[in-house]
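Board notes (copied after class):
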Amino acid sequence: MLYAQKGEKWTNGEDVKLNIDVLEVPVLIKYFPIENMNIYAGPTLDYILSAKVEMDSGDLDLKEEELIKTMGFGLSFGTQYIMDKIVLDARYDMGLTDLNDEAENDEEIKLNTIYISVGYMF
């Protein structure tokens, strides 16, 4: 289980910032082609905890206004390298679910994310 904050900024006549808090449940299968390195892939279930838009003209809570779906689905794939107790990880999450729940708006909201992380094993 993974908690992530995702977002985007753009200008559409005014500055707009989208912030989404997500609880992700990835189910990943790992393959070790060589010692200390693995590649992995699998499905990911996303639960949207909050989704807010900040604009110059005012803020909007997409979840409270029921403009965004609560659940999403995606695919994750990546690679991991382990050096002694240091773990280097790179992963891409590809959102497959259009989270936009507003019937009048045809713009897609998909959670596509690149993760790069360094960890230490105790």
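Comment from the instructor: The first strand starts at residue 2 and ends at 11. The chain has one domain: 2-120.
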